[in-house]
């Protein structure tokens, strides 16, 4: 009898679903989420997801990418998403504004997730928007080089329980559009150039032309022109440069474009790297000996080392 119970228990585990959840949150709090569910022996069986909040849209596909019929129902403050398993796999793509709430300057992502099937293993990840300051979470903290990523793992979730994914964060550059200061600088530069051009024209119009005597013919051979100073070589062929990712390459290219030395403020204005990420990247490049940092007044000077210049 005991062996039969153990056998049935092992069968139930082997037929349990495995779930992978990947979500990203925009600066406005909208969550874009993909749920991939492997459902053994799920042939033509109806299943549903149990989510803590309404959805703006949902698309369900099979393993080949064919879109399937799906429906949603609301039970209290929860949403059930129904679909029929064609064989052993379902993929749910969902958009929702209900998984995040804002309390003052604090954003809170809070999702409980369940399923009509027992779940043997679940892995979930949440990518936070841009430069943020993480305040709390019940997951593990990591990153992909451009943003913070929170991850969760759980095992043996039965149909009576749900997984709880939570993270509280603040936007360190909330609502800050880096195109605005660049546009302001461009407008100021155009105005200044126009003023300079206008002043020069006025000066030329009022000034008396000077009489310039003709230059005498040279009596000695002219000296050869000085050779041109070579521009810095492109870093693309440098072996160390090739090992960098695209974000670090963008930073190094901009420093090279400024003759191998510039300021951190210049890099922030002329690259697409957020301020907090830029500070981390520069610290990493300095640790690897690719750049050298120094202080001049209240400015951080960034200089390429010979590792890249070679």
Describe this structure in words.
The chain is of the alpha+beta class and about 300 residues long. It has two domains: about 1-170, Sandwich (Immunoglobulin-like), CATH 2.60.40.3650; about 175-185 and about 235-310, Winged helix-like DNA-binding domain superfamily/Winged helix DNA-binding domain (Arc Repressor Mutant, subunit A), CATH 1.10.10.10. The protein has seven helices and 18 strands. The chain has helices at about 1-15, 180-205, 240, 245-255, 265-270, 275-285, 305-310; strands spanning about 15-25, 30-40, 45-50, 55-60, 65-70, 70-75, 80-85, 90-95, 100-105, 105-115, 120-125, 130-135, 140-145, 150-155, 165-170, 260-265, 290-295, 300-305. An eight-stranded mixed beta sheet has the order 5-4-8-2-1-11-14-13, with no helix packed on it. Strands 3, 6, 7, 9, 10, 12 and 15 form a seven-stranded antiparallel beta sheet that branches. β9 (about 100-105) and β10 form a beta hairpin. The relative contact order is 0.10.
């Amino acid at each position: 009898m005991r062996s039969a119970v153990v056998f049935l228990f092992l069968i139930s585990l082997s037929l349990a679903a495995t779930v992978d959840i990947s979500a990203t949150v925009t600066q406005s709090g909208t969550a874009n989420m993909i749920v991939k569910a492997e459902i053994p022996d799920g042939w033509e069986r109806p299943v549903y997801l149990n989510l803590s909040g309404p959805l703006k849209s949902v698309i369900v596909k099979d393993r080949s990418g064919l879109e399937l019929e799906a429906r949603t129902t609301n039970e209290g403050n929860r949403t059930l998403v129904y679909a029929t398993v064609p064989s052993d796999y379902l993929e749910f793509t969902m958009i929702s504004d209900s998984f995040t709430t804002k309390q003052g300057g604090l954003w809170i992502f809070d999702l409980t997730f369940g399923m009509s099937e027992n779940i043997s293993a679940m892995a979930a990840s949440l990518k936070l928007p841009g430069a943020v300051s993480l305040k709390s979470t019940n997951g593990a903290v990591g990153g992909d080089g451009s943003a913070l990523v929170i991850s969760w793992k759980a095992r043996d979730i039965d149909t009576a329980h749900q997984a709880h994914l939570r993270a509280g964060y603040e936007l360190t550059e909330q609502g800050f559009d880096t195109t605005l200061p660049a546009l302001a600088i461009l407008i100021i530069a155009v105005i200044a150039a126009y003023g300079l051009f206008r002043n020069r024209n006025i000066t030329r119009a009022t000034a008396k032309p000077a009489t310039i005597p003709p230059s005498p013919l040279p009596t000695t051979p002219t000296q050869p022109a000085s050779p041109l100073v070579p521009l810095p070589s492109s870093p693309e062929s440098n072996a160390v440069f090739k090992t960098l990712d695209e974000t670090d390459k963008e930073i190094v290219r901009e420093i090279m474009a400024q003759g191998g030395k510039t300021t951190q403020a210049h890099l922030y204005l002329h690259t697409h790297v957020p301020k907090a990420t830029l500070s981390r990247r520069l610290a990493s490049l300095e640790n690897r000996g690719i750049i050298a940092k120094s202080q001049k007044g209240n400015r951080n000077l960034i200089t390429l080392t010979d590792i890249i210049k070679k």
